[in-house]
Amino acid sequence: MMMSSVEFFRNLPPKQCNKCGNTLDEMHESYIQQCDECEKDVTVLKM
Question: What InterPro entries does the entry give (predicted)?
Fold first, then answer.
């Protein structure tokens, strides 16, 4: 039996930051890969 898409997304584990491993507060289908703190570090380095 196929699982519904709602059930699929509900059962996904919490998304984690690629750099530090903290749990992200974004939706699972979001393209964000890093938490706000790690993103700030990257932004400061680029400037």
Answer: YhfH-like
Scanning the chain, the segments in alpha helix (DSSP H) are 5-10, 36-46
How many contiguous H segments (helices) and E segments (strands) does the chain have?
2, 0
pTM assigned to the model: 0.57
Amino acid (1-letter code) at residue 28: H
HSE-up of residue 22 (Cα within 13 Å, Cβ side): 11
Could you identify the residue written with the tokens 């699982």?
Answer: 3
CB 19 within 8 A of CB 36: no
